[in-house]
């Protein structure tokens, strides 16, 4: 059953119930009131007769007391003693026989209703006579008989009218919802997330529904776009990774072919193969790190003293081949600074920055600095290398991005992407500033760790 029909039926049903209740009440009150009046008149006539009998020991003139619609009868349990007109007898209810005044509603031989009051008259404490007064109820019957169909027809008419009005109103109220539903349906069918449900009405319940629905579509569209970008990035990643792995493999295979043909173990070819195999395993390790990061595998973090860690990395970096002055400027306060981190990944990120600085700086200085910055600590690797062109700067953290001069330096383009991921993993960030011809500064900012309770404030 449609919502419209249900609403219309509900309202009509409510009205019909209310009207029925009202009609029954009116009918009942009318009947009750009329009978009460008749009863009062029967009572007064009966008592006048009974009083006269008890006081004066005689029956008053019944004709004088009765009017056209009142019948009076005086009787013992066997005989009718007197009656206002010759109309036969009335039944004596058992209650009245037992001595209690009683009202009853009877029907005469023609089936016409009348109201009867039977009043026992006591002699020496015993009911001996009964005064009976009756009045026909035809008038009431006629009024009620006329009223019934009027009420019935009235209720039916009102029900029809209300039904029609409720149907129309429900239709009007539901129309915007229907429009929204069919718009939503067509959006679902076309699978076009850029479509929106048009709505110009007031911001009522329907307005809010449309607003919420369109808002949901916004979110879906955004999510879908992000998903598509992620899938694209993943495809690119796989393609780039395959491409990167192909080059060293080709070189190794070429050398094996050469060695086979030459029949001797040329030390140069073997060295080539060794270097390419080393490059490949380094690349594979980086790829694996990225894949783990993509899979959402985040290593456990623990409170670490930053000073010893940075000093250790600088010591190891100093052993890397470089042609620059390597300056380490770490304040003693660094030893008291703790971060919540993963030692191995932090080492790796710093090494990537230092390795890049050495790789891309043919002469000059590479400086490592550290200091407090806001709620955190910043580690900086500053070089006096060729710098990064402004158009490349925003892309250096992208996977597989390599600046032009880098191509000859054998990097995979994954180093900074990994370092940046490590920064994010620690709730920090990695930023780069550079001026072509002057050098570059890579800053790794990490939030300082403060134990929740009882810790020292560094
Ligand atoms: P790669 O393996 O090529 O070094 P990275 O992700 O570490 O990959 O770096 C991406 C690119 O950013 C490099 O190819 C290079 O062009 C540029 N780059 C990174 N560090 C420096 C630096 N210290 N000086 C100049 N250019 C740099």
TrEMBL record:
Residues 240-450 form the Histidine kinase domain. The keyword Membrane applies. PANTHER family: SENSOR HISTIDINE KINASE TRCS (PTHR45436:SF5), SENSOR HISTIDINE KINASE YKOH (PTHR45436). This is histidine kinase. One of its GO terms (cellular component) is plasma membrane. Residues 171-225 form the HAMP domain. It catalyses: ATP + protein L-histidine = ADP + protein N-phospho-L-histidine. Its EC number is 2.7.13.3. The chain crosses the membrane at residues 7-30, 150-170. It comes from Symbiobacterium thermophilum. InterPro entries: HAMP_dom, HATPase_C_sf, HATPase_dom, His_kinase_dom, HisK_dim/P_dom, HisK_dim/P_sf, Sig_transdc_His_kin-like_C, TCS_sensor_his_kinase. CDD domains: HAMP, HATPase, HisKA. It is found in: Membrane. Keywords: Kinase, Membrane, Phosphoprotein, Transferase, Transmembrane, Transmembrane helix, Two-component regulatory system. GO terms for molecular function: phosphorelay sensor kinase activity. Gene3D superfamilies: 1.10.287.130, 6.10.340.10, Histidine kinase-like ATPase, C-terminal domain. It holds the Pfam family HATPase_c. The keyword Transmembrane helix applies.
């Amino acid at each position: 059953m449609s919502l419209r029909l249900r609403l219309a039926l509900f309202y009509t049903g409510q009205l019909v119930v209310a009207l029925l209740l009202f009609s029954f009440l009116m009918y009942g009150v009318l009947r009750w009131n009329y009978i009460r009046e008749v009863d009062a008149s029967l009572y007064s006539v009966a008592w006048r007769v009974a009083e006269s009998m008890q006081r004066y020991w005689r029956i008053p003139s019944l004709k004088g007391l009765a009017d056209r619609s009142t019948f009076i009868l005086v009787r013992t349990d066997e005989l009718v003693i007197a009656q206002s007109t010759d109309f036969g007898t009335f039944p004596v209810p058992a209650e009245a026989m037992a001595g209690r005044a009683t009202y009853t509603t009877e029907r005469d031989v023609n089936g016409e209703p009348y109201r009867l009051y039977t009043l026992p008259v006591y002699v020496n404490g015993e009911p001996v006579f009964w005064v009976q007064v009756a009045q026909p109820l035809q008038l009431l019957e006629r009024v009620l008989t006329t009223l019934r169909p009027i009420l019935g027809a009235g209720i039916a008419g009102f029900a029809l009218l209300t039904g029609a009005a409720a149907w129309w109103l429900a239709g009007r109220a539901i129309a915007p919802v229907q429009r929204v539903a069919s718009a939503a349906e067509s959006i679902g069918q076309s699978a076009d997330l850029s479509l929106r449900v048009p709505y110009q009405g007031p911001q009522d319940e329907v307005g809010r529904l449309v607003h919420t629905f369109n808002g949901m579509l916004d979110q879906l569209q955004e999510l879908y776009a992000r998903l598509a970008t992620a899938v694209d990035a993943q495809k690119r990643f796989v393609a780039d990774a395959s491409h990167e792995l192909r080059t060293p493999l080709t070189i190794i295979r070429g050398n094996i072919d050469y060695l086979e043909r030459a029949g001797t173990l040329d030390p140069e070819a073997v060295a080539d193969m060794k270097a390419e195999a080393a490059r490949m395993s380094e690349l594979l390790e980086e790829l694996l790190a990225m894949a783990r990061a993509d899979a959402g595998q985040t290593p456990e973090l623990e409170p670490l003293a930053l000073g010893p860690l940075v000093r250790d990395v600088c010591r190891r970096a100093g052993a890397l081949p470089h042609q620059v002055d390597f300056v380490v400027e770490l304040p003693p306060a660094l030893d008291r600074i703790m971060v919540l981190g993963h030692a191995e990944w932090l080492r790796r990120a710093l090494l990537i920055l230092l390795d890049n600085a050495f790789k891309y700086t043919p002469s000059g200085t590479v400086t490592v600095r550290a200091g407090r910055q806001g709620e955190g600590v910043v580690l900086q690797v500053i070089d006096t290398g060729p710098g990064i062109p402004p158009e490349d700067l925003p892309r250096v953290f992208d996977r597989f991005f390599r600046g032009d001069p880098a191509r000859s330096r054998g990097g995979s383009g994954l180093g900074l992407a990994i370092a940046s991921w490590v920064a994010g993993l620690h709730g920090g960030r990695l930023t780069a500033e550079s001026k072509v011809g002057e050098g570059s500064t890579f800053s790794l900012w990490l939030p300082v760790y403060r134990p929740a309770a009882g810790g020292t404030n560094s």
